[in-house]
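Minutes, project check-in
Item: structure for the 275-residue chain
Input as provided by the requester:
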Amino acid sequence: MKFFLLLTSVLLVWIWPWTNIRSVDSGDVAKDSLTLKLRELAPSTLKRVVPNSSFGVGERLEFSITYGPIVAGTAVMEVKEITRYNDHRCFRLVSTAESNKFFSVFFKVDDRVESLMDVYGLFSLHFEKHLREGKYRADRYVDFDHSQRLAFADEDTIPIKQYVQDALSSLYYVRTLNLHPGNSVFVENHSDKKNYSLEVKVLRRERVRVPAGEFDCLVVEPMLRASGIFKHKGKLTVWLTDDRFRIPVLMKSKVAVGSIASKLKGYTLGKISGY
């Protein structure tokens, strides 16, 4: 019953003191100039630079999780800080999920997932998850060496594709991409010692209302191109705001019995530039 991890790491793939998320206007940072600035700041050995005008330190997204008609708990996704890891400047991404008092009587959940994501190239360098779901306990750690294209998990060394994402960083990476209805974007991922390719289909535009407000959104659906940890019969649909922030405001997934929804109920914008 790992549905809390499913929603908080989104895809798994995968989710401000303003009352509404704003659309991009002429005053927003142009991608070309942002790319140039990042290249000047990035280490000379770094080959990939991904412009990011979507998220930054201080961003906090709070969700209400429902299982059918039952409010089961809350989830929080945060860009905590910038830290240094193996000579890389990294975003520290943290996702947590907790069941509420009522649901905990039947199934207590207290999960935490963390990712260290390179600030300039937006790829994963370290991933860990700590699951406490009912009687189930699990702690997993993975380190990525992109120069050697290897992942190190426990005592295992696994070949990976360069600039691979983990289950949490993949959402943040997708938020920076150009998304258009009718098109797809593709992301290489690694999780639980397995590599898999993820196709994210952009289905349509739609306006939705959640506890945090009403938003114009792009509706996307992650689709696996190869078998892996997400080989299941359920379908995950994500509503991302149709602006430069691409905030996940609603996530729905069908499971074996019933359905799960994660709805944005509060948010704080982070500092986008200046890294």
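Outcome recorded: Residues 31-41 form the longest helix (11 residues).
No further action items on this chain.
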